[in-house]
């Protein structure tokens, strides 16, 4: 049995947190014994982990200069065979905390090409000797790390996965519950309300469309530091009566089932789960050509791609999907099948298990075979 400690900065609901939860709960328990260490306090993803019988250790960091989590993590690593970290702060802390602990392998994860924080890449690349592999969520993120000086041979690419069947339904009472008109086109974006997700540009495109399609409604799902500025922007554009800011929801399938077109206006990415989920729901998607997105969306076949910050392109793509419903259905159907074939949760988990087994073998600690 291989004892595997996952380490993450926080356990709120985000792409990295969801991936960790899926991995920890779906690993073959006859081979791997997972546990989770979180630098911060409790978050939403702690409950499903504990419900699955996975120990969750909260390190209670009090600010970025608090060194106590380092020593707490050092103690936890005494009882682990491998460590796999997620998110920048957890990546760095785990690398140093694992020194001298005799682990078979130390892995970290590159989840996004953080073009607004290049120093983070610099630190990760300069400490690459302390890890055996850094799992990249897309080829674009891998290339971003290579540009920073990280060795290619330590950068395996394992894309995110999605539970396609969870998003298969097209039945939803979401519109009635939220007071949205049943017969109005609904254009949705989902993501953290942060500069990265380009919600500012989504609202600009919404304003351009609202003048010619007065019945169209727009939905923004997510929380984040830009919530109030974005609401003020909607008022400034005169579309605050057309835009609903939903905040956080744990029922994304219901939202997508009520949606006509999904938009991702990100300025940079890794591999957005929200996009995979929208495609799994069979929606036509309009997204920007950034890391990860171009690995998933084939322009004109499984969705429509535009350049980041291209308001006219976003608006045009949305109008195309709304005006030509036959083409929209074809795009959505192809998107669902593409995700089903190439981005399943099972494929993501099995790829990680194969990587773990390879690293264990290189360390002379071959993972035990599960019982027949």
- Helix tally equals 15
Q: Summarize the biggest pleated sheet.
A: 6 strands, parallel
Number of strands: 12
So, the CATH homologous superfamily of the largest domain? Answer: Glycogen Phosphorylase B
What sort of overall outline do the alpha carbons produce when their principal axes are compared? elongated
Secondary-structure element pattern, one letter each: EHEHEHEHEHEHHEHEHEHEHEHEHHH
**What percentage of residues falls in helices of 4 or more residues?**
40-55%
CATH-level-2 architecture of the largest domain: 3-Layer(aba) Sandwich
End-to-end distance: 15 Å
Tell me the strand percentage band: 15-25%
Count up the domains.
2
How many whole angstroms does the radius of gyration measure?
21 Å
Which structural class should the secondary elements be placed in?
Answer: alpha/beta
Oligomer: single chain
> Low-confidence parts, pLDDT < 50 over ≥5 residues?
none
Strand order of the largest sheet: 3-2-1-4-5-6
Annotated CATH topology of the largest domain: Rossmann fold
Return the CATH class of the largest domain. Answer: Alpha Beta
**Average pLDDT reading:** 94
């Amino acid at each position: 049995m291989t004892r595997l400690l996952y380490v993450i900065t926080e356990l709120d609901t985000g792409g990295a947190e969801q991936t960790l939860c899926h991995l920890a709960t779906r690993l073959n328990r006859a081979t791997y014994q997972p546990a989770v260490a979180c630098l911060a306090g409790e978050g939403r993803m702690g409950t499903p982990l504990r419900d699955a019988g996975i120990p969750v250790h909260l390190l209670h960091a009090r600010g970025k200069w608090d060194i106590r989590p380092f020593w707490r993590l050092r103690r936890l690593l005494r009882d682990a065979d491998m460590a796999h970290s997620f998110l920048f702060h957890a990546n760095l802390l785990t690398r140093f905390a694992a020194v001298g602990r005799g682990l078979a392998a130390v892995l970290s994860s590159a989840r996004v090409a953080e073009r607004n924080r290049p120093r983070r890449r610099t630190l990760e690349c300069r400490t690459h000797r302390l890890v055996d592999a850094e799992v990249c969520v897309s080829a674009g993120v891998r290339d971003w790390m290579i540009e920073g000086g990280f060795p290619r041979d330590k950068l395996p690419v394992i894309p995110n996965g999605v539970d396609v069947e969870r998003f298969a339904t097209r039945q939803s009472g979401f519109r009635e519950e939220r007071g949205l008109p049943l017969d109005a086109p609904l254009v949705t974006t989902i993501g953290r309300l942060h500069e990265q997700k380009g919600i500012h540009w989504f609202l600009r495109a919404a304003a351009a469309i609202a003048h010619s399609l007065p019945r169209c409604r727009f939905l923004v799902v997510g929380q984040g530091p830009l919530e109030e500025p974005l609401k003020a922007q909607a008022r400034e554009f005169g579309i605050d009566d057309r835009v609903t800011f939903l905040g956080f929801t744990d029922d994304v399938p219901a939202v997508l089932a009520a949606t006509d077109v999904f938009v991702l206006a990100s300025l940079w990415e890794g591999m957005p789960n929200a996009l995979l989920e929208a495609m799994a729901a069979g929606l036509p998607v309009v997204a920007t050509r950034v890391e990860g997105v171009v690995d998933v969306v084939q322009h004109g076949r499984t969705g429509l791609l535009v350049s980041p910050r291209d308001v006219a392109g976003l608006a045009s793509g949305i109008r195309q999907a709304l005006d030509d419903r036959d083409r929209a259905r074809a795009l959505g159907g192809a998107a669902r099948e593409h995700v089903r074939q190439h981005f399943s949760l099972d494929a993501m988990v099995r790829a990680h298990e194969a990587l773990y087994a390879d690293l264990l073998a290189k360390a002379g600690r071959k993972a035990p075979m599960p019982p027949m």
